[in-house]
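Q: Joint fold for the lines below.
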Amino acid sequence: MLSLAEENYLKSIYHLSDAGEKAVLTNELAEALNTKAASVTDMVKKLSTKEFISYEKYYGVKITSKGKSVALAVIRKHRLWETFLVQTLGFKWDEVHEVAEQLEHIKSTLLIEKIDEFLGYPQVDPHGDPIPNAQGKIKKLEKTALKNLTAGSESTIVAVKDSDSNLLKYLEKIGAKPGKKLTVISKEEYDGSLQVAIESQHYFISKEVSENILVTL
Amino acid sequence: MLSLAEENYLKSIYHLSDAGEKAVLTNELAEALNTKAASVTDMVKKLSTKEFISYEKYYGVKITSKGKSVALAVIRKHRLWETFLVQTLGFKWDEVHEVAEQLEHIKSTLLIEKIDEFLGYPQVDPHGDPIPNAQGKIKKLEKTALKNLTAGSESTIVAVKDSDSNLLKYLEKIGAKPGKKLTVISKEEYDGSLQVAIESQHYFISKEVSENILVTL
DNA sequence: CTACAAATTTAGACTTACCTAAAAAAATAT
DNA sequence: ATATTTTTTTAGGTAAGTCTAAATTTGTAG
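A: Joint structure:
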């Protein structure tokens, strides 16, 4: 059985590698996990022996399919719990992350399947991120950052990055939730800021924020 | 912040001491926690320094009020989660214990208050055990083991001991749930076995089982 | 009340997951 | 192409929580 630390490493490696596409460097991982490079080296050696990743000294790690399926199971749990917290218990967006980080490590297949059933088999979590199924398959949609749109574009918000609580509060205030329609009214080329409409309200959005809102066309 | 191990020790000490009434011996604790006496000695020293218990060498430990409030918070979480698993997710009695043992350690006051609210502030868990409130107060009812009843007694089941999964399955089969009426039809003095009626069905119950069913008159 | 048994504690060790400091390798800059 | 910087690894250590084996204390039985 995997430890909490091992699960967190695999989850981070999965995310940082874009779902296993590219290798992940020691320092990236150290930063993501709030730990030191030396600790990462120790752990990746262990995960490598257990064949959840392949590790080549000085060249970073790649996640194996065995590792991927662990990561996806954890991500599935995280997203189902987030959905549960928001939809069923009425948590606010910005309150769920920390708790879901704990709940994602509860070991019980039955529990997570029951939660999935209870929620009616949702496809995406409250941030719009897709929820892997029990087999680890993800349905994915074409998404792009809001900052890539040009004036006049109409789009639907599909996700926001869920890491920063202040950002989430701000997005909540302007109603920037997954599912909402968003139209780009104008774009200032010199600083990348945008004027957008969400439900006929107009907002001024900085380039920074526009990098954290993902949309489909 | 208390570790998982510390929380488990305090919970066990609370239970074994009858809610803090009597001292708990090293070996009892070792047995309850599936560990060795030497490990218990180490941990009780630590908990004692932190003033969750008072510890006198060779004489066992007593839980302090500080320790009690930790234990009760954990027990509250355990029982609320069990209630949630059974009532909301449709778990069977005998499936909840293990999962609740994990969920009881999730750290989030908000979460447990929301669960409590969602469940409509239940007073007892699915085994009939009382759920402490947020302040750690327990409403208690007079209960006695079924084995103490005599022929002819009518009673209501209030609780069953939740430790043994086989026992729980058996009790489920005969419909011995909290809330059900139970009448003692006859009692065999030589082996302590009972004949009882639950919902007009008659069952033969061994002394052992009758020690694990708690009732009110 | 002494001797043996049972319970408990101490001593020393192990594992996991960290850490710091120093060494080594790789990347970069002149 | 060499020197410097950055990244990564190694070496050695720490804390939590566990263990076994030995020592000590307490309880018990003759």
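Q: Anything notable?
A: Strands of chain B lie at 53-56, 60-63, 144-145, 154-160, 181-187, 194-198, 201-205, 213-216. Residues 25-27, 37-38, 40-42, 57-58 of chain B lie near DNA strand C (CB under 10 Å from a C1').
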